[in-house]
From TrEMBL, chain A:
Keyword Lipoprotein: no
Residue stretches of each WD repeat: 62-104, 278-319, 321-362
Role according to the record: Part of the small subunit (SSU) processome, first precursor of the small eukaryotic ribosomal subunit. During the assembly of the SSU processome in the nucleolus, many ribosome biogenesis factors, an RNA chaperone and ribosomal proteins associate with the nascent pre-rRNA and work in concert to generate RNA folding, modifications, rearrangements and cleavage as well as targeted degradation of pre-ribosomal RNA by the RNA exosome. Participates in the 18S rRNA processing in growing oocytes, being essential for oocyte nonsurrounded nucleolus (NSN) to surrounded nucleolus (SN) transition.
UniProt main location, coarse: nucleus
Protein name: DDB1- and CUL4-associated factor 13
SUPFAM superfamilies assigned to the protein according to its UniProt record, in alphabetical order: WD40 repeat-like (SSF50978)
Pathway the protein contributes to: Protein modification; protein ubiquitination
Species this chain originates from: Puma concolor
One MF term in the entry's GO annotations: ubiquitin-like ligase-substrate adaptor activity
PROSITE patterns: WD_REPEATS_1, WD_REPEATS_2, WD_REPEATS_REGION
Gene behind the chain: DCAF13
Subcellular location: Nucleus, Nucleolus
From TrEMBL, chain B:
PANTHER family: WD REPEAT-CONTAINING PROTEIN 46, WD-REPEAT PROTEIN BING4
Full protein name: WD repeat-containing protein 46
Region (Disordered): 1-112, 546-619
GO biological process, one term: maturation of SSU-rRNA from tricistronic rRNA transcript (SSU-rRNA, 5.8S rRNA, LSU-rRNA)
Gene3D superfamilies recorded: YVTN repeat-like/Quinoprotein amine dehydrogenase
Domain BING4 C-terminal: 448-526
Gene that encodes it: WDR46
UniProt subunit comment: Part of the small subunit (SSU) processome, composed of more than 70 proteins and the RNA chaperone small nucleolar RNA (snoRNA) U3. Interacts with DDX21, NCL, NOP2 and EBNA1BP2.
PROSITE patterns assigned: WD_REPEATS_2
Listed Basic and acidic residues bias regions: 580-591
Biological role stated in the UniProt entry: Scaffold component of the nucleolar structure. Required for localization of DDX21 and NCL to the granular compartment of the nucleolus. Part of the small subunit (SSU) processome, first precursor of the small eukaryotic ribosomal subunit. During the assembly of the SSU processome in the nucleolus, many ribosome biogenesis factors, an RNA chaperone and ribosomal proteins associate with the nascent pre-rRNA and work in concert to generate RNA folding, modifications, rearrangements and cleavage as well as targeted degradation of pre-ribosomal RNA by the RNA exosome.
Pfam families the UniProt entry points to: BING4CT, WD40
WD repeat ranges per the UniProt record: 363-397
Keywords recorded for this protein, A-Z: Nucleus, Phosphoprotein, Repeat, WD repeat
């Protein structure tokens, strides 16, 4: 007879002294871990609930401006510095870590229409209603010196926006035409127009650095190549586009913030159909900015809220609002992709977390592991109805909520009418136009 | 320790299983010639540096030189289901050579036996989604690849397991069933011998008993009201009370700190000091108790014919189901999916979940009443015994077909499965144990593995988790039997740790409560939650089409592209269009033709020896 009994030596399973860590032998055999899927589901449910519990995105409000904040700019080299221009011509430079204003400049008379930093971070440019373009040093003046711009260019018309080239000493302004300027000269290198209307914003492409996009109030978006004297092509939409923003990761993708409450992501190679129509706002979208990852963007709207959209989804994943925040005019996603800043009508700049439930500060390795595990679980079970409902739920102000209901009813009515028309007309005579194509009027080359 | 394998005593090796395994290997494309470092060396010395695949013959001769693995394999009786031939392994075929000419004797990642990797594989590739988009399909493929990688990693971690399962083998031709407990106790070490004991408690009548989930604690209750719990390893008594009422069943709740006792009238819950915490009057005249540890549900079967689920974490009754089959006194849980199996007096076994008012399934098992039911830990096999003296084993994977049956002289009144798939049956004052060919395999009922005669009639059986011990409650008290090879040798410290401290237990309790599985999720397939819900997907699609008035995902009709240099004439356009349309039409016809024979097969009438007059009504 040969016999062996299972006989464990407790010394192998119990810690030797109280100072040791407890021993935890593992066996990953699935029969020892029954109900794997239901338990993971419950963990995912708990993780989703906790995410909603910890969703406290608002970090700080920077106050000091004496009029509505009209434009924001990020510092290219310092994460802590941010610049803002207000409607009374005042420019302020803020330190985000201290949450304080470190410098105030009375830059223009009337609005500061646009502000942008030079790629090296040593100076910045502002344009205002007083028909001037001013270049300022990033560092403040020395003791006893007076606050004065490095250069001032007097133009003939009002400039409504400015953007700096990402690599060269060239910047572009817009107003009645798009002007390309050399920093050393007082007259533009070239001016480009297409039609006669005021252009509200101009943006350089961060990858293909010679490309520019602009949007004008005659409802079109025009693309330019700096190396040519004439514009490339334009697309005409149903309503006016307020701003555009290029995707920092994909050279040919840009997103346009439109007056018709929607945002349109275009592939510049095929402008006749937008890649995605992003619809969730209930009022005109005023500004848009991409996250440095190029996966998401944030939009500011006249409906007193900001929303975060994934690039490939038509619905937003997040909405931020507070009771005191009025119409949001400008928004920026910080370069570390962790925070969002927005400037609004009621003179404040607000700082938000990009990921509402993220824990700030240093995480221990166990915290990090738990966070990653929960993230993966949430991803795995995101389509289960119960989890989806909790993850999607957001509290909205009553005005926005009722507006959404109202617009849903209107959309349903329109759709019903369309279906009825289709049903009662000769087959083939009425075709259904998809949401993507509906808003594009024409593409001109 | 022996090194030479003995021929298997009782049952011929199961050819079917082996063949099935082979098939799996080939279908996965893992069948690959592997080379050992010594083979490479011999070929180097003999025929220079030509690394051709070595012949099988050489392989066979050289196999005996593997010292370590063979030892491990032969030692255990139960791990012999793994074929004793060379295990097929995953490994890089080409050894890399350095500049000096020396080569890595173990090139590539460490090899993993395919059977082990199979155990951890969770994705069933045979299931295909009906109409998935290419994007979804590619995403699924990525997930599958990840899963595969994970299963390989998990299989690799098997190497770290510390303990080996126990075994019992007779000498040549010796029947292990003839080996008595006394002999085993003499042969094993002192620590193991101490696990065999008898508690002589004649005056308090037949005993029911239950081990806690970690296998560290034992609770037992006698018909005459004697209830006690003890740490049976150290033999330290935790509490001993007399409830002054008949005790029908006793069961630990999620930890050893609480246990439930089904008393004559009501259900009571006590703590580890024997203090009565709750008297649950909504569960009256309870005959059997089962605890579902992941759902925190205490299932009670009562004389009144009700199956009641009590959520012990919040103290609420989740469901009270009327089985409509009279008195219920046969109950067991399926540890794989938490479904409760009830045995009835009409020979059926019904499967219950708290989410459903009706049984999930009813299986007709016996002519005459069902006396005992047991389900193994993988949820694959169900053993039943009935008044017809039959012991049957059923397959629970879908078909509920009997796999094997055997008539016992007395009929078994109590059945229980161990962690490694041993089946114990209590018949009168005898306990028989049958074993299969490996872990969680079908126990062969031809010859028992062990038998033991007790001093009284068996009234309760329970295998101790993580110990090679079978606890038997009988009219004379409690007997703790040694059953080598019954238990899983390697426990998981985060799941149930027999050596856990109080702090660890408290932490575990919080975690377990946080991830309490809702009772509604109990169903026959616990993995169903991770699968694509095709039905509601189709439903949603249909509703969407209805709402929109058209199908947004419909394929647009073919529109020929304009061609240059006069080839875009109307006639050629029409021709091209017609060509595509015809091709689509042919595809449709082909598909429908493929489906037709399947339908006909389904319709085929059952052929009988003599045609019946009623056949004309068959359709």
């Amino acid at each position: 007879m040969k016999v062996k009994m299972l006989s464990r030596n407790p010394d192998n399973y119990v810690r030797e002294t109280k100072l040791d860590l407890q021993r935890v032998p593992r066996n990953y055999d699935p029969t020892l871990h029954p109900f794997e899927v239901p338990r993971e589901y419950v963990r995912a449910l708990n993780a989703t609930k906790l995410e909603r519990v910890f969703a406290k995105p608002f970090l700080a409000s920077l106050d000091g401006h004496r009029d509505g904040v009209n434009c924001l700019a990020k510092h290219p080299k310092s994460l802590a510095t941010v610049l803002s221009g207000a409607c009374d011509g005042e420019v302020r430079i803020w330190n985000l870590t201290k949450r304080k204003c470190i410098r105030t400049i009375q830059a223009h008379e009337g609005f500061v229409r646009g502000i942008c930093t030079r790629f090296c971070g040593t100076s910045f440019f502002t344009v205002g209603d007083d028909k001037t373009v001013k270049q300022w040093k990033m560092d403040g003046p020395g003791y006893g010196e007076e606050e004065e711009p490095l250069h001032t260019i007097l133009g003939k018309t009002v400039y409504t926006g400015i953007d700096h080239h990402w690599k060269e000493a060239v910047f572009a302004t817009c107003g009645q035409q798009v002007d390309i300027w050399d920093e050393q000269r007082t007259s533009p290198i070239c001016s480009m127009t297409w039609g006669f209307d005021s252009i509200s914003s101009v943006k350089f492409n961060p990858i293909e650095t010679f490309l520019l996009g602009s949007c004008a109030s005659d409802r079109n978006i025009v693309l330019y190549d700096m190396r040519q004297a004439t514009p490339l092509k334009k697309v005409i939409l149903d309503m006016r586009t307020n701003t555009i923003c290029w995707n920092p990761m994909e050279a040919f993708i840009f997103t346009a913030a439109n007056e018709d409450y929607n945002l349109y992501t275009f592939d510049m190679r095929a402008l006749d159909t937008p890649v995605m129509v992003h619809m969730d706002h209930v009022s005109a979208v005023l500004d848009v900015d991409y996250s440095p990852t190029g996966k998401e963007f944030v939009s500011a709207s006249f409906d007193k809220s900001i929303r975060i959209f994934p690039v490939d989804k038509s619905r937003s994943r997040e909405v931020y609002h507070t009771k005191r925040m009025q119409h949001v005019i400008c928004v920026k996603w910080t370069s570390d992709s962790k925070y969002i800043m927005c400037g609004s009508d009621e003179m404040n700049i607000r700082l938000w977390k990009a990921n509402a439930s993220e824990k700030l500060g240093v995480l221990t390795s166990r915290e990090k592991a738990a966070k990653d595990y929960n993230q993966k679980l949430k991803e795995k079970f995101q389509h289960h109805p119960h989890i989806k409902r909790i993850a999607r739920h957001r509290h909205l102000p009553k005005s926005i909520y009722s507006q959404i209901q109202e617009q849903r009813i209107m959309r349903e009515a329109r759709r019903r009418k369309e279906v009825n028309r289709l049903k009662h007309s000769k087959p083939g005579s009425v075709s259904i136009v998809s949401e993507k194509k509906k808003h594009i009027v024409a593409v001109v080359k | 320790m022996e090194t030479v394998p003995k021929p298997s005593r009782d049952v011929p090796p199961k050819k079917n299983r082996l063949q099935a395994k082979k098939k799996v290997e080939t279908s996965l494309g893992w069948k690959r010639k592997t080379r050992r470092y010594w083979e490479e060396e011999t070929s180097l010395t003999a025929a220079g540096a030509s690394p051709g695949p070595p012949s099988n013959k050489k392989n066979r001769e050289l196999r005996h030189q593997r010292p370590k693995n063979t030892n491990i394999q032969k030692k255990s009786r139960f791990s012999r289901a793994q074929p004793p031939k060379k295990p097929r392994e995953l490994r890089n075929p080409e050894p890399q050579r350095s500049l000096s000419g020396a080569q890595d004797p173990f090139p590539g990642p460490a090899p993993i036996p395919v059977e082990v990797a199979q155990k951890f594989c969770r994705i069933d590739k045979s299931k295909k989604l009906p109409h998935s988009k290419s994007k979804t399909r590619s995403r699924l493929e990525v997930a599958e690849a990840e899963e595969q990688e994970i299963s390989i990693k998990a299989a690799r971690s098997e190497l770290l397991l510390a303990e080996e399962p126990g075994f019992l083998e007779g000498e040549d031709g010796e029947d292990t069933a003839k080996i008595r407990q006394v002999d085993i106790v003499e042969a094993v070490d002192i620590a193991s011998a101490a696990k065999h004991f008898d508690l002589n408690l004649r005056q308090f009548g037949p005993y029911r008993l239950n081990y806690s989930r970690t296998g560290r604690h034992l609770a037992f209750g006698g018909r005459r009201g004697h209830v006690a719990t003890l740490d049976w390893v150290t033999k330290r008594l935790m509490c001993e009370i007399n409830v002054m009422e008949a005790v029908r069943d006793i069961r630990f709740l999620h930890s050893e700190a609480l246990f439930a006792v089904a008393q004559n009238r009501w259900l009571h819950i006590y703590d580890n000091q024997g203090i009565e915490l709750h008297c649950i009057r909504r569960c009256d005249r309870v005959t059997r108790l089962e605890f579902l540890p992941f759902h925190f549900l205490l299932a009670t079967a009562s004389e009144t014919g009700f199956l009641t689920y009590l959520d012990v974490s919040v103290g609420k009754i989740v469901a009270a189901l009327n089985a409509r089959a009279g008195r219920l006194d046969v109950m067991t849980k399926n540890p794989y999916n938490a479904v409760i199996h009830l045995g009835h007096s009409n020979g059926t076994v019904s499967l219950w979940s708290p989410a459903m008012k009706e049984p999930l399934a009813k299986i007709l098992c016996h002519r005459g009443g069902v006396r005992a039911v047991a389900v193994d830990s993988t949820g694959t096999y169900m053993a039943t015994s009935g008044l017809d003296h039959q012991l049957k084993i059923f397959d629970l994977r879908g078909t509920f077909q009997p796999l094997s049956a055997r008539t016992l002289p007395q009929g078994a009144g109590h059945l229980v499965f161990s962690q490694r798939g041993l089946l114990a049956a209590g018949m009168g004052d005898v306990v028989n144990i049958w074993a299969g060919q490996g872990k969680a395999s079908l126990p062969s009922l031809e010859q028992p593995y062990l038998t033991h005669r007790l001093s009284g009639h068996v009234h309760g059986l329970h295998f101790c988790p993580f110990e090679d011990v079978l606890g038997v409650g009988h009219t004379g008290g409690i007997t703790s039997m040694l059953v080598p090879g019954a238990a899983e040798p390697n426990f998981d410290g985060l799941e149930s740790n027999p050596y856990r401290s109080q702090k660890q237990r408290q932490e575990w309790e919080v975690k377990a409560l946080l991830e309490k599985v809702p009772a509604e999720l109990i169903c026959l397939d616990p993995r169903a939650l991770a699968e694509v819900d095709v039905i509601s997907l189709e439903q949603e699609k249909k509703e969407r089409i209805e709402r929109l008035g058209y199908d947004p995902e419909a394929k647009a009709p073919f529109q020929p592209k304009p061609k240059q240099k006069g080839r875009s004439s109307t006639a050629s356009l029409v021709k091209r269009k017609r060509k595509v349309m015809d091709e689509e039409h042919r595809d449709k016809v082909r598909q429908s033709l493929e489906q037709q024979p399947q339908k006909q097969e389904k319709k085929a009438k059952p052929t009988r020896a003599r045609p019946s007059a009623l056949d004309r009504f068959l359709r």
